[in-house]
């Protein structure tokens, strides 16, 4: 499994392209901005783009969704809670057409023959999701290197956020790589040892 990271837009959001090296099938997580340039980049990659997965519905994570969806005719997956916030035009939530499918914890979702773990991790947004693939956790804006997501936007709650991290994410092996929605990657072991929010 190959992972390409693109840093997009004014908010420097991390967009991830996950590629199965054998089939060249791929999915994209959080295409957040620069839709036209992102589509050009994806076309040059010579991959079979299959899905768009969204960790949450904030504007910096969904800004290029419709451009990518239309260019490649692929489905979009998000939590139902965050789709409602988008449709209600809540502050900080982006614009996009209604998602094709809603994801929830425990859903049987696979990519290139491998299971994708889906965790409901509310706190940053009501419908925040985290995705686990082969020991790699895509945490969106829930968990960062030495920090956690902000909780002052609609649907945010610090107690809920910390519960999501401690009761779900930190139960995974310490060797799990964490690829967050902003900033550098880390591991759960590093966050357990050094993240002051998790003491």
Number of separate structural domains? 1
| Shape label | globular
Range of strand content = 25-35%
Q: Output the CATH class name.
A: Alpha Beta
* Widest β-sheet, arrangement of strands: 1-2-3-4-5-6
Query: In terms of quaternary structure, what is this?
Result: single chain
Percent in helix: 10-25%
Largest sheet: 6 strands, mixed
- Total helical segments: 6
Q: Gyration radius, to the nearest Å? A: 16 Å
Short account of what is shown:
This protein has 6 helices and 14 strands. With 199 residues, it is of the alpha/beta class.
Structural write-up:
- With 199 residues, the chain is α/β, with parallel strands linked by helices.
- It has a single domain, classed as 4-Layer Sandwich (Metallo-beta-lactamase, Chain A), CATH 3.60.15.
- It contains six helices and 14 strands.
- The strands form three sheets. The chain has a six-stranded mixed beta sheet with strand order 1-2-3-4-5-6. A six-stranded mixed beta sheet has the order 7-8-9-10-13-14. It has a two-stranded antiparallel ribbon with strand order 11-12.
- Helix 4 (80-87) links the parallel strand 5 and strand 6.
- The chain is globular.
- 43% of the residues are buried.
- The model has no long low-confidence stretch (mean pLDDT 97).
